[in-house]
Amino acid sequence: MTLVSSGTLSIGGTATDRSINLELSLAQNANSNLGQTNFRSLAGVASGTISIQDFYGKSAGGGCTCNGQFWYFAENDEDACGGTRTREFLYHCNDFNCATSELFTDSSCEEAWEPVDGYWSNQTDVIYVENGAIDSCEECP
Predict the structure, then answer these.
(1) Euclidean distance between CA atoms 94 and 92, whole angstroms
(2) Are residues 55 and 81 in the same domain?
(3) Alpha carbon of 39 to those of 3, 99, 104: distances in Å?
């Protein structure tokens, strides 16, 4: 389902196209707030001010709660997991699983990430990318 692109939106409620909780597969009366990670991921607002208007037209995708987090790039696994590195905000469906999850560049988990060769880490897992494809994925050292 996709949230409406104008009109009334709310955190809770029973209207599937007007309730952010329902869009995120949460109970309509779940105790939620706009600053939660899953809400920020859906809105595409990683940090700073967030408002209801940021959710217009957003979709968590079919059966997918699109979550976002920073991924860190470096030339080796140790730097990617905690040393000198650069970062990019990427998204994945539901909880990240090193073996099966795909990464996306948008908060609806539809635009596939095109990786740059090197090491990418979410500070728990590290992915090695070679020739534009994920070669291996394991826990940070």
Answers:
(1) 6
(2) no
(3) 13, 25, 16
State whether 77 and 125 are in the same domain.
Answer: yes
Q: How far apart are CA 103 and CA 106, in angstroms?
A: 9
* Phi, psi dihedrals of residue 57, rounded to the nearest 5°: 75, 5
* C-alpha dihedral (96, 102, 108, 114), degrees to nearest 10: 130
pLDDT digits (tens, 9 = 90+) for 81-137: 998 889 999 988 877 877 778 888 988 888 889 888 999 999 899 999 999 888 899
Burial of 5 (0-12, 13-18, 19+ CB in 10 A): exposed
- Model pTM greater than 0.70? no
